[in-house]
Amino acid sequence: MVDQRSVDVGGVRLAYEVLGPPDAPPLVLLHGLGEDATDWAVVGPALARSRRAFALDLRGHGRSDWPGHYSLELMQADVLRFLDVLGLGQVDLIGHSMGGIVAYLLAEDHPQRVNRLVLEDVSVPRPREQTTPTRPDGDLTFDWEMVLAIRRQIDVPDPRWLERLSEITAETLVVAGGPRSHVPQDGVAELARRIPGGRAVTIPVGHLIHHAAPAAFTEAVSAFLPATVGVRPAR
């Protein structure tokens, strides 16, 4: 059963969902742009069989605060404070798309906090053609200003993000979506090569791998995550 909670991480309230055994090692799930914690609903229960899984709504998304100021660095800082407030020391970390960028930034800046890292269809951070997205009609479950701010950063990433990939110490699995994905797959492969100890696997179903092929995704991730020899406290 999914347990919905929220926590203050320094002036911003983050909503999150918890599932899995309370005394199991922690696993943190970070969604893509415009999604929220419910994005993991299909694969979450399988991943939480041997983990205490925490699926976050990043700032500007879902039930979390929409504070009006956004960046990938702020999202990373929110996640770090989330770990601190909940008393989670070292965690396994899965990030899809935008959430994967937040995840590798955390692994770059705070390598001691990330045990194993899974990046789902995330490309190496290089400048790309800038485009202005069109706002969808109707009510949104995310702040449109957040989308514009994050898209600008993804289009013109900080060069240090690329330079510091070599500083990631977590064993890393990069899951590629193959030719059906809009994400350049040569960039996904390069990301895996630039991270020491990085490895790549392709599940050729497009960008939304954990939706299109949930069984294959959970099998690949579960095989990569270490067996739970012991347990550690998790809230």
General description of the model:
This protein is of the alpha/beta class. The protein contains eight helices and eight strands. The chain has helices at residues 44-47, 72-85, 98-109, 144-155, 159-163, 185-194, 209-212, 214-224; strands at residues 3-8, 13-19, 26-30, 52-56, 91-96, 114-120, 171-176, 198-202. Strands 1-2-4-3-5-6-7-8 form an eight-stranded mixed sheet, sandwiched between helices. Helix 2 (72-85) crosses helix 3 (98-109). The chain is globular and about 45 Å long.
Topology summary:
Elements lengths: L2 E6 L4 E7 L6 E5 L13 H4 L4 E5 L15 H14 L5 E6 L1 H12 L4 E7 L23 H12 L3 H5 L7 E6 L8 H10 L3 E5 L6 H4 L1 H11 L11
Parallel strand pairs: 3-4, 3-5, 5-6, 6-7, 7-8
Antiparallel strand pairs: 1-2, 2-4
Helix pairs in contact: 2-3
List keywords for this structure.
single chain, alpha/beta, 8-stranded mixed sheet, 8 strands, globular, 235 residues, disordered C terminus, Rossmann fold
Bin the strand percentage.
Answer: 15-25%
What is the helix content?
25-40%
**Largest sheet, spatial ordering of strands:** 1-2-4-3-5-6-7-8
- The fourth-level CATH homologous superfamily is Alpha/Beta hydrolase fold, catalytic domain
